[in-house]
Design a protein that fits this description.
By secondary structure, the protein is of the alpha/beta class. It has 3 domains: 72 residues, BirA Bifunctional Protein, domain 2; 175 residues, 3-Layer(aba) Sandwich (Rossmann fold); 160 residues, Dihydrodipicolinate Reductase, domain 2 (2-Layer Sandwich), CATH 3.30.360. It is 26% helix and 26% strand. It has 14 helices and 20 strands. Strands 5, 6, 7, 8, 9, 10, 11, 12 and 13 form a 9-stranded mixed beta sheet that branches. Helix 4 packs across helix 14 and helix 10 packs parallel to helix 12. The chain is elongated, with a radius of gyration of 27 Å. The two termini are 41 Å apart. The relative contact order is 0.10.
Length: 452
C-alpha cells in the first residue's frame, strides 16, 4: 500500500530499512524514508500490544505527511479514502473540509472531501501561466471553487515559489511548477494564461490529451487566420481555430457549454460588446465610436516605461491609437450580430490599478428615444446573472472585484446620438472570472458558481 501511495505521489527513492520501532514486533519492523529523509515506520504489531487491543495480530504504520510531501517534486495535497472491504479492513482518515484526495475519478476528475457534500468527484484543473495578474486571480478563484479541484499551477518564472508569496492577498499555497505535459496533462480542464503566440502550442498539447481549455490569450479569439496574422503574426496552431468558441457567455452560452476550447475575450471587447450587443442585434448602429479607459493592470505584470509610476501616475493618455489589437475582435463579434463595418476604438491608460469604463457613442440607423432604448436593453439582458442596468452612469468602483458588467444608456435628443456606458473589472469580468464563468458552463455547472 505504501508503494502504491509513493507511485501515486511520485515520491522519489522510497526505502525501507529494518529498525526497532515502538509497538512493533522485534525483527518485523522497518523505518521508512523518502529521498534519504525519514518519513515514518511500519511493521507487525507486537503480540502484547495486539492482545491489549483484542486483536489476533495486525500491521501498523505511521507517516509524517509533511515530510513525505516535502520529498515530492510537485506541491500536492492527497488523502487516501479507499476502503478494502475484501480484506475487512477499515481505514479512517480525518481531514479538513477542503482536503483533496489522490483517488482518481472518471474523466480526469479528483475526489474531494467536504463536510457539506461528503466525498465527491470534481473536475481537476490546472492554471498554466499563474504568475501573471489574470492567471494568479484565476488560480485564486479556482482554489476556493466548490466544484473544481485546482491541483497545480505552472509558470515561466518564479519556479518553486508559493503563489501566496508572490500575491499574498490570494492565499493560494501551491508552488509554481514548470509545465510538463506528462504530469500536468492528466486533468479535466486547464486555464491557459500565457501571452499570445506562447499560448497556442500549449493549448494544442493539452487539447491533444483531451483536456478542456479556456485560453486567456488572443490566439483563438479571431476565427479568420488571415485576420489574426495581420494583427499578431504567424499563428502557432491554426488547425484548432475551427473548434474554438468565443467565450462571451452573454452571446455564445450554448456553444460554450458544448466546447472543448474556449477563447476568453479580451478586456476591452468584453466591455464594448456588452455595451453594444443589443443595438447591433436590433440593426440600430449606423456608426460607432468607442472610447475606453482602463487601469494599469490591463498592461500586464511586466513593467514598462508606459506603466512606470512616474509616467502613469497623475496622467491619462491614449495608446494603440487606430491600431489596437482588440479592434478586430470587437468587429468580428459585432459583425456576427449584424453590424459589419469598421469601428473606431481608442483605449486610454488610467492612473489606477484595475477597472475599465467603456463609453460608446452610436449614430443610430433611425431615431430612438430613451424609453425605447432602455426597453431594448432590459429585454436583451433579462435574466443575465452578471449584467446590471443602472439608473446612472457607472464607475469602475461599482464593479471592482466582481464578475459584473454595469451598463447605463441614454438617447441624446439634441444630437440624436445613443450613449452607452459600461463598467467592468478588467481582471475579473475582463479576464479571470469570465474564464471561470466559461469553465462552469463547459462542465454543466451554474455559471455563477464560485463567483458570487
Amino acid at each position: 500500500m505504501l508503494e502504491a501511495l509513493s507511485q501515486a505521489l511520485r515520491v522519489p527513492d522510497l526505502a525501507f530499512e529494518p529498525a526497532p520501532e515502538p509497538f512493533l514486533h522485534p525483527g518485523r519492523a522497518a523505518r521508512v524514508s523518502a529521498a534519504g529523509a525519514p518519513v515514518g515506520w511500519l511493521g507487525e504489531l507486537h503480540p502484547l500490544i495486539a492482545g491489549e487491543w483484542d486483536l489476533d495480530g495486525g500491521a501498523a504504520f505511521e507517516l509524517d505527511l509533511d515530510a513525505l510531501l516535502a520529498a515530492v517534486p510537485a506541491q500536492l495535497r492527497y488523502v487516501d479514502l479507499i476502503s478494502y472491504q475484501a480484506l475487512r479492513l477499515d481505514i479512517a482518515v480525518a481531514v479538513d473540509e477542503d482536503t483533496r484526495t489522490s483517488s482518481p475519478c472518471a474523466g480526469g476528475s479528483s475526489r474531494r472531501s467536504r463536510r457539506s457534500s461528503g466525498v465527491s468527484c470534481v473536475p481537476s484543473v490546472i492554471v498554466a501561466g499563474a504568475t501573471g495578474f489574470a492567471g494568479a486571480l484565476a488560480a485564486q478563484l479556482l482554489w476556493r471553487h466548490p466544484d473544481f479541484d485546482l491541483i497545480a499551477i505552472t509558470g515561466r518564472s518564479d519556479l518553486g515559489k508559493p503563489l501566496q508569496e508572490i500575491y499574498p492577498r490570494y492565499r493560494v499555497p501551491l508552488r509554481i511548477e514548470e509545465l510538463e505535459f506528462e504530469i500536468h496533462g492528466d486533468v479535466a480542464a486547464a486555464v491557459v494564461a500565457y501571452p499570445h503566440g506562447a499560448s497556442a502550442p500549449v493549448v494544442a498539447a493539452l487539447r491533444a490529451r483531451g483536456v478542456r481549455v479556456v485560453d486567456l490569450s488572443a490566439d483563438f479569439r479571431l476565427a479568420d487566420r488571415g485576420v489574426y496574422e495581420d494583427w499578431y503574426g504567424e499563428h502557432g496552431s491554426p488547425s484548432l481555430l475551427p473548434e474554438a468558441v468565443y467565450g462571451l457567455p452573454e452571446l455564445h452560452r450554448d456553444q460554450i457549454a458544448a466546447a472543448g476550447l474556449v477563447a476568453n475575450p479580451g478586456c476591452y471587447p468584453t466591455g464594448a460588446l456588452l455595451a453594444l450587443a443589443p443595438l447591433a442585434r436590433a440593426g440600430l448602429i449606423a456608426d460607432v465610436v468607442i472610447d475606453a479607459k482602463e487601469g494599469v493592470s490591463g498592461a500586464g505584470r511586466a513593467p514598462s516605461e508606459r506603466t512606470h509610476f512616474s509616467t502613469a501616475g497623475e496622467n491619462v493618455f491614449p495608446y494603440g491609437v487606430a491600431a489596437h489589437r482588440h479592434t478586430p475582435e470587437i468587429e468580428q463579434e459585432l459583425a456576427g450580430l449584424g453590424y459589419d463595418r469598421p469601428v473606431s476604438f481608442t483605449p486610454h491608460l488610467m492612473p489606477f490599478d484595475q477597472g475599465e469604463l467603456t463609453s460608446a457613442y452610436v449614430t443610430p440607423t433611425r431615431g430612438v428615444a430613451t424609453p425605447e432604448l432602455r426597453e431594448l436593453y432590459e429585454r436583451d439582458y433579462a435574466g443575465e446573472p452578471f449584467v446590471e442596468l443602472a439608473e446612472r452612469p457607472p464607475g469602475v468602483r461599482d464593479v471592482r472585484d466582481s464578475n459584473r458588467c454595469r451598463i447605463f444608456t441614454l438617447a441624446d435628443e439634441r444630437t440624436g446620438k445613443l450613449l452607452v456606458f459600461s463598467a467592468i473589472d478588467n481582471l475579473w469580468k475582463g479576464a479571470a472570472s469570465q474564464a471561470i464563468q466559461n469553465l462552469n458552463l463547459m462542465f454543466g455547472l451554474d455559471e455563477g458558481c464560485g463567483l458570487r
